[in-house]
Design brief:
The complex is a heterodimer of chains A (179) and B (302).
Chain A lengths: L4 E6 L5 H7 L4 H8 L1 E2 L14 E7 L2 E3 H13 E7 L1 H5 L11 H11 L17 E6 L9 E3 L6 H13 L14
Parallel strand pairs in A: 1-2, 1-3, 3-5, 5-7
Antiparallel strand pairs in A: 4-6
Chain B lengths: L2 H23 L1 H17 L3 H10 L19 E5 L2 E5 L5 H7 L23 E4 L2 E4 L10 E3 L3 H17 L14 H8 L16 E2 L5 E4 L8 H5 L9 E4 L6 E4 L1 H6 L2 H10 L5 E3 L25
Parallel strand pairs in B: 1-5
Antiparallel strand pairs in B: 1-2, 3-4, 3-5, 6-7, 7-10, 8-9
Helix pairs in contact in B: 1-2, 5-6
Classes of the chains: A alpha/beta (179), B alpha+beta (302).
Bound molecules: iron/sulfur cluster (2 copies) and FE2/S2 (inorganic) cluster.
């Protein structure tokens, strides 16, 4: 029987959640026995080559590319999981949600003291920034949520093994944290 | 009639009613007698006073341990989730539950502060009706439901509402690990709120001298308004505006004069990270904070 296929992506995130996934210590050997990775920064596969069973999403949606990527994941993964505070509620990038987008751009590219060439970048190549940062479940349907900044390695491991074995997840108190 | 005579009369009337009801009609009648007793209390408007009567009693005399010895003479018998409990006359459901080793979650309640019944986190069912445990006095024969799925889910929903109606970025918050709201989220294993995030626009005021106020995190429990005063009893904190726009502010003059320990107290009494003391922060490392290892309420529930 072929192994379950996992894909991962980092949208508007810091890669901390991916680091936490790698933080499972020697269980990483079990992990590669248990699953096969497809599109993911972990193996550097850039496009989906087959249908995946589980998709891990890190980060929320702050630009058009994030949205396209997320929709693509929803299409190609049977189960989609929001991993980390940013995917769940926008996280730190969402601190700009109360500030009008013009003000954000002006502060970053015109008024900031370290700015040299005062120009707001605007090119077709650059993804369009959204009016605010969106939690993933506001864009597509998300099946499960794993909070934390980053989610504890134990939480990710528990969730993954529970999903693969079809057993209910074991949630130790220390594993569920929002920071 | 003086206040105390009203109280005595109401109490003895309640006892008589409850007793005869139990004798005559059994359990179900006991429930209705509680209701009518409660009604008669409201009529004579002594309900509030019953609470303050309990307050005047020297609290230090009663040890706050599970199943603390209660004075048999005035002991009221009641039930929480089928467990037989005892209470002193005038004790609130919350207080009595704690003495009996039963945890009822709270947010606006703070030990030693007059209960205000603002947040409804402590909602229990008395005779099928939702009541705030922190403000409702125990009556003889009360049948209370507490840790039932319906109430636990409602409490969880309330925690979720508080999360979405503010801006809670726990990873950036100085209170993280010591925050009651967050700890309730942990206790109820809240993974993501069922409601959409509102991302409201709220202000942060860091122009005070001793503290800063971050209204993004305020849950409007008014613990600061109720519990933080100057030595001569003047309020330092107040709530301005109404409804969704309500904001906590501090009196600049009084705030600037706050001694360090009072500023610390203001920060500690705020259940969330809305009041922070300046120039200290992240003093306790991750792993050693209040709710890192044990769920909120584990000091009561055993
Ligand atoms: S106040 Fe509590 S819930 Fe809100 S951000 Fe801070 S730690 Fe999180
Ligand atoms: S500032 Fe803190 S204590 Fe005051 S009302 Fe808000 S949450 Fe409660
Ligand atoms: S704790 Fe009882 S209403 Fe807030």
């Amino acid at each position: 029987m072929s192994k379950p296929v996992v894909a991962t992506a980092s949208l508007a995130g810091c890669f901390g959640c991916h680091m936490s996934l790698l933080d499972i210590d020697d269980r990483i050997l079990q992990l590669i026995d248990l699953v096969e990775f497809n599109k993911s920064p972990i193996d550097d596969i850039k496009t989906f080559t087959k249908e995946c069973d589980i998709g891990f999403i890190e980060g929320g949606c702050c630009n058009s590319e994030n949205v396209e990527n997320l929709i693509n994941f929803r299409k190609n993964c049977k189960v989609l999981i929001s991993v980390g505070e940013c995917a769940i509620m926008g996280g730190l990038p969402a601190m700009r949600n109360g500030i009008p987008i013009r003000e954000c751009l002006e502060e970053a590219y015109l008024n900031c003291v370290t700015v040299d060439d005062k120009i707001i970048p605007n090119d077709e190549e650059i993804p369009m920034i959204l009016d605010r940062v969106y939690p993933c479940h506001e864009i597509v349907k998300i099946d499960y949520f794993l909070p934390g900044c980053p989610p504890r390695a134990d939480l990710i491991w528990e969730a993954l093994t529970a999903l693969l074995s079809g057993k209910p997840i074991n949630l130790p108190y220390e594993a569920l944290k929002y920071d | 009639m003086s206040k105390s005579t009203i109280r005595k009369k109401v109490k003895s009337a309640m006892k008589k009613k409850a007793k005869s009801a139990i004798k005559n009609k059994g359990k179900s009648a006991a429930k209705s007698s509680v209701k009518s007793a409660a009604r008669s209390r409201v009529k004579s408007s002594a309900a509030g006073r019953a609470g303050s009567a309990a307050k005047k009693k020297p609290r230090s005399a009663v040890k706050r341990k599970a199943a603390a010895p209660v004075k048999t003479k005035s002991a009221l018998r009641f039930e929480i989730d089928g467990k037989a409990c005892k209470a002193r006359a005038g004790q609130t459901i919350l207080d009595a539950a704690r003495d009996n080793g039963i945890y009822i979650p709270v947010l606006c309640f703070y030990k030693g502060m007059k209960p205000a019944g603002i947040c409804r986190m402590c909602t229990v069912k008395v005779g099928g009706r939702n009541m705030a445990a922190c403000t409702t006095p125990v009556a003889e024969g009360m049948i209370i439901e507490n840790a039932i799925p319906e109430l636990e889910d409602m409490r969880k929903a309330m925690v979720e509402m508080l999360f979405v109606e503010g801006n809670h970025m726990c990873p950036t918050c100085e209170k993280s690990g010591n925050c009651d709201l967050q700890a309730l989220g942990y206790r109820y294993q809240l993974l993501a709120p069922r409601f959409p995030y509102m991302f409201p626009q709220r202000n942060i005021d860091a122009t005070y001298s001793k503290i800063m106020i971050d209204n993004n995190r305020c849950v409007q429990c008014r613990r600061c308004v109720r519990g933080i005063t100057t030595k001569d009893g003047r309020n330092i904190f107040a709530m301005t505006k109404r409804s969704g726009k309500s904001t906590i502010v501090a009196d600049r003059e009084l705030e600037a004069k706050m001694p360090d320990d009072l500023a610390r107290k203001a920060m500690d009494q705020c259940p969330v990270g809305a009041i922070l003391k300046k120039e200290v922060g992240f003093a306790v490392p991750i792993g050693k904070r209040k709710y890192d290892a044990k769920p909120i309420g584990s000091e009561i529930h055993n």
